[in-house]
Amino acid sequence: MDKMFEKVLRKRGSRVSTANDWLQIQIGGPDLGKKKKPTNQNRIKSTKYTLITFLPQNLLEQFRRIANFYFLVMTIISLLIDSPVSPMTSLLPLVFVIAVTAAKQGYEDILRFRTDNVVNASPVTIIRDGVEAIIKSQDVAPGDLVVVEKDCDVPCDLVLLRTTDPHGKCFITTANLDGESNLKTLMVPRELPTVDLKDMHKLGMIECETPTTDLYSFNGKIELKGGEGRVLPLSAENVLLRGSRVKNTECVIGCAVYTGMITKLQLNSRLTRNKNSSSETYINRFLIVILVTLIAIVTLLYFLKRYNELFVIPKLTYLGDATDSYSVKQFLQDYLSFLILFNYLIPISLYVTIELQRVIGGFFMEWDTELYENETDQQCVVNTSNLNEELGQINILFSDKTGTLTKNEMNFQQCSIAGRKFHFKKTRLEEEDTHALLDINKFNADQRVFFQALTICHTVQVAAGSLEEADASSTTKKEPPVATGKKSGPPEMYSISDITEESHNSSQQSELNVSHNIENSVSEHPNGVNGGGGGGGGGGGATITSSSDVNPLLVSNDSYSVERRKRPQVVKRSPNFARPANRVHIAPTPGDTQINQTELNGGNSSSPSTNGAGALHSPIHSPHIRPISLQFQRSTSERDLPQFGEAHNSAALGHRRAHSYGAPNAYLSNPMGSSSTPSTSAIFRSPSTHSRESYAAPTFTRQPTILVRAESQRRKNEIRDFIFTLDYQASSPDEKALVEACANLGLVYTGDDDEILSVRIVPPHLDYKRPFTMGKPKEEKFHRLHVLEFTSDRKRMSVIVRDAEGKKWIYTKGAESYVFPLCANSSGHLVTKTDHHISDFARLGLRTLAIARRMIGEEEYRDFLQELAQANSSLENRKQLSEECYAKIESNLDLLGATAVEDALQDDVADTLVSLQAAGIKIWVLTGDKVETALNIALSCGHIPPDAKKYFIIECKNREDMLLHLNALDREIIFGIGQECALLIDGKSLAVALSEVAKEFRDVAVKCTAVLCCRLSPLQKSEVVALIKSSNENYNTASIGDGANDVSMIQEAHVGIGIMGREGRQAARCADFAFAKFCMLKRLLLVHGHYHSVRLSLLVLYFFYKNIVFMGIMFLFQFHTLFSSSSVYDSLFLTLYNVIYTSLPILFIAITEKPYTEEKLMSTPQLYKKNTDNKQLHWPYFLMWVLFAMYHAVIIFYFAFCMFSFNNVILSVGQTAAFSCFGTLLIWGVVIVVNLKLWLESMYLSYWYIFTLVISILGFMVTTVIYNVINLDYDTDIYWAYNNLLASLPVWLWVLLVSVACLVPDFTIRMLQRGLNIKHFSIFPGKQRKLKMREKFESTYL
């Protein structure tokens, strides 16, 4: 491969040199002086043909098909000899088939060419010799400095050299590469010197490996120029791959290394192996049988002809003297004449019709509304239409678990900390033994360290600007627009710093759903600081005051106290749980006369409501409505109760709760601040010294509890909305779930700034009994030194951080089977307890991870840095050396605990799996989860029947143990007659089975009802599929998955099915079929699979049937012509028979046939078994159609022969019929019978289908009428022959009689099968029974 790349690069005039199979690329490109820069080095070509190569290459591809090649040979032969029929009878159908196929493939290639041109001609900004220039994408060459801006695609593979991010980071998405939509972070090479743009081309030389298909690896180095002569290592985190898109970074500059067709994207975009339907095997078998039959017929007729020439013709003196000599030329003439005469036994139009049927059938699947997902606007996608019928032949289904059987929506549920088990309760932990509720204020040291580890041991990114956006809502002044219409998008989110102290104290029952507004009475500030009082009348509206009553607990900005006091604001709304609402409402400027209706409605922009808190368009002063600019104070009153608000204030704006920090007292007064008499419904209280005491005063017994619960709920909602605003971007949903759970508990990860991780401590619950302190929220900082990335081999990830005290720690998170062996001996007792808890979690179907850490000494850290630098500098085995370095420092860890995350099942998974099993499909689940977790999911989703006997093969390490297990399992299956058995095996044991006893494992495993393989790598998944495919039983396999790790399994199976899920679209793009939900698989297989199998079987068998009828008459005719090799049909009939007379009805029924209704197939999965293993293409069905064809040929020929022999005066004019009438009558009968036979075999009769049958028969009649009125002396003379037949009553009676005589047996057999429920029988009795008995009593492996 390396030599190939070198040859390609040299051929293209590349500026890349190769040394020791490594590429050397000058940054900025070499100085070529006045030479013209090379072009087209980054050109993408996905087309198959060019104008010069299209014709020869396309013809070569088409003539590889046996039918096309056969007719080509027959055409050439008919041109070389004295053909009994016109050569056009072979040439015209062949040209038609070749032309249609060539036009289709040529059009598809033109579309690819146009798409390529759009990409190749797109503008790209580069820097050459320090000057920016815009060129076409196809002209980018290795070494060019390419500028890529935000939201733009990367034009080729680049080494990142400069970014506008101050910390040298670049954020990208790789949905076009691996299907993952989350943000990924790339870095400028560490210690790369910063130079001016005009000097970047003088940086040095890049040396890297030749391109490979691995998207996640890159080995290279930069040799810097100048006196330093330093060498900087390059890895995958320094490379932007073609197909990725820059996000959240304004601009980046990179050096092109791989361009054009050798980029990693293009190397991965190469076509995979072609998948062929299993039905093609049967079609090829039938073709071989027909071809052998053809040779036998031709040979038989030739010898009969020679016999007649030698012994019969000499006795017929009126034929003249027989020839004395017989040459080789005469032999070829005779033999090949018969071959030309019967070449229509091979149906040339079969392949074209099958192709059309598959393409149209693929459209039907894509148009199926039951396979359309409305929420994501995703329809079914058919990438490989030639596998449509294979959907009805599946024996074994391989399925991923996460994201396929489950939704891949993770929710943190439980955890084990220091040997104690806890349940997650939104903002608290509940200990399992004592049921005590703990919030972050009550955490002990172990619990704090555990969640601290979860908060920093990850690679989660906070989307750029999200934190600033969240904080901006509390620190900047906003001017709400006039409400002019509906506001789109989600409600505005606010910073944690906007969350007030009022909700700090909540009850244990924080989940209480309060369905009504709890409104607080309002009061004017006692000192009248509202500046303008309540509502002056002039057009200026209410005067705005500056609020200083803000909770600064959650604000980390030191300038907050100054800026916040200058912020005009409307205080918070009352908690309203009936609809989403904004958290803070910013007051309008003094000139504003209208209030944003959307904000007053809490994000709901519908028409003004007449309910409790109606929407207002302007601050119209009313004795019951207080101006929003006034300072509100907290109070406790009967007015706050929901019942009171509904009864007395149904049309008023809901009262808004005020901040009470520093308020000297709290009381009620006239809502408008005027001297008018206050409302009688108001209840006055004397001022209190502290508003906190008045808030808790038990004036009414119900009200404080309701308020506390409502405040708690509001508090949690605001934290949840803030987390949503942060927009965590994680490489896996597990990581995101863990970080969000920590945030709900009060440890909010707010992002990293130049590898400085920030964790804000935000207690969701505060005790009102304790005094409130006016300090800034606590924020912890950690300097992230290294990230030891997760890989499928390591099954863990680690981070090395330095805390505020300067201590260095390594935190490790991963699968317990890989983390426990790394723990120190001192953690042995804790490992046992935690392992027991993990088993409990797994039995509940939860996904588990173990968490550990330890402190790193300075000397150990220096050694680690030195070893890691050496590993990164190595160009050989860099990955292996790095992992050895990682493993050395990931040792002697102190176990902290374990996490348990729930992944909910997909909709209707259980019904789908149970139905597929009832349809005879064995299901293998291949997952990376541990055995206990996968087993629980398998039981809950119906994969493993509840009463099935479960056999475990765990931790098997050698061949002997594996054979013992397989022997025991085989005996369980053999002697447990009727007992369902499920096999569960882990990855380590499976590795032994695949390498040591693959055949034995396969033969035993396929006997199980269900198989569950756990802890598998993506490679092992594909190896399992390949193993089953190698069986002599010829199992038809299907694989279904949703992630990039399932691609190898999907491509290996006979049918690959992708789920367009949360893990991206890589699996869907590589699959043959793709849809949005797993439950759609049931309809895809049971309905579409069944239909397509039946349709293709009918199509194939009918094509052979109608050609055997057609040629059978020709065969019988030879016996009455002394085997003269003359044709009974005119050349027009030979040409149009497969093109017009019989093509349309079979194509129509092949795309619409429905032997059962869709509802019947969905409710009765057992019907799926009727078509598996291509039962309807087995020899009994084929021979039955052949027998009917032979019978119909005999009836048609001899009925016509008898009529012409006994009395051929059948014409209306009283004349004898000519020979041309005989051939025309035969083809007329053939066209009618074969079309009516198709009608009889069809189950789904529609008006359009009947119309195609009628139009085909009429098409024959019209074309024959037109042809027979033209006097052409080209082939046979049928001038006016068909018109004479149409005018003859005996001919019409003959047509009716022949049709009935031919189809009565067909109809009788069909009615007997339906009426008496007679099944099709096998013409090989006992074969299947003997095979099953042999398998059952087969000796075991020991």
UniProtKB/TrEMBL annotation:
Its cofactor is Mg(2+). Mg(2+) binds at D400, T402, D1042, D1046. It is found in: Endomembrane system; Membrane. Residues 1068-1316 form the P-type ATPase C-terminal domain. The active site is at D400. GO terms for biological process: phospholipid translocation. GO terms for cellular component: endoplasmic reticulum; plasma membrane. Keywords: ATP-binding, Magnesium, Membrane, Metal-binding, Nucleotide-binding, Translocase, Transmembrane, Transmembrane helix. ATP binds at D400, K401, T402, E735, F790, K813, R847, T927, G928, D929, R1015, K1021, N1045, D1046. Its EC number is 7.6.2.1. Residues 529-542 have a biased composition (Gly residues). The chain crosses the membrane at residues 282-304, 335-354, 1099-1119, 1131-1152, 1179-1201, 1213-1236, 1248-1270, 1290-1309. InterPro entries: ATPase_P-typ_cyto_dom_N, ATPase_P-typ_P_site, ATPase_P-typ_TM_dom_sf, ATPase_P-typ_transduc_dom_A_sf, ATPase_P-type_domA, HAD-like_sf, HAD_sf, P-type_ATPase_IV. Residues 122-247 form the P-type ATPase A domain. Its main location: membrane. It holds the Pfam family PhoLip_ATPase_N. One of its GO terms (molecular function) is magnesium ion binding. It catalyses: ATP + H2O + phospholipidSide 1 = ADP + phosphate + phospholipidSide 2. Residues 672-689 have a biased composition (Polar residues). It is an enzyme of class 7 (translocase). Residues 38-90 form the P-type ATPase N-terminal domain. Residues 468-495, 520-550, 672-695 are annotated as: Disordered. Belongs to the cation transport ATPase (P-type) (TC 3.A.3) family. Type IV subfamily. PANTHER family: PHOSPHOLIPID-TRANSPORTING ATPASE, PROBABLE PHOSPHOLIPID-TRANSPORTING ATPASE. This is Phospholipid-transporting ATPase.
